[in-house]
């Protein structure tokens, strides 16, 4: 736990920037019209492939004894993968709405 507080104090500005980005993202997304929400989110979710690759690289370069970075990297890979799969599922559903019915 002491390692976490040391990491937090070292990167305090970065942590506050991430918190600010979360609130800004929520504010921006809440003002997107419902008609545009699904196409924009399905495209944005596909970009999370970059997050997955980045998390794998970070996990590969981290110290094997640094459990915090390994756990956070694993969580990033799992959540990024779920987001990518969800984005493709939403895109597939959206495209099926425009197919001709038999």
Overview of this structure, please?
With 102 residues, the protein is mainly α. The protein folds into two domains: 1-31; 36-102. 83% of the residues lie in helices and 0% in strands. It has five helices and no strands. The protein has helices at 2-10, 12-30, 34-46, 48-61, 67-96. Helix 3 (34-46) packs across helix 5 (67-96) and helix 4 packs antiparallel against helix 5. The longest helix is centred in the C-terminal third of the chain and has 30 residues, at 67-96. The chain is elongated.
Largest sheet, in brief, is: none
Uncertain residue ranges? none
> Structural class of the helix and strand makeup?
mainly alpha
Strand percentage? under 5%
How many domains in all? 2
Q: Please give the count of helices.
A: 5
- List how many beta strands DSSP finds: 0
Percent range of helical residues: over 70%
Q: Average pLDDT value?
A: 81
């Amino acid at each position: 736990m002491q390692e976490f507080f040391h990491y937090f104090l070292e990167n305090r500005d970065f942590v506050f920037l991430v918190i600010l980005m979360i609130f800004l993202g929520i504010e921006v997304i809440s003002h997107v019209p419902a008609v545009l929400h699904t196409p924009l989110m399905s495209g944005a979710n596909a970009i999370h492939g970059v997050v997955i690759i980045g998390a794998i690289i970070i996990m590969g370069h981290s110290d094997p004894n640094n459990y915090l970075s390994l756990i956070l990297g694993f969580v990033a890979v799992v959540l990024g993968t779920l987001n990518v799969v969800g984005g493709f599922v939403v895109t597939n559903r959206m495209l099926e709405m425009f197919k001709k019915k038999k």
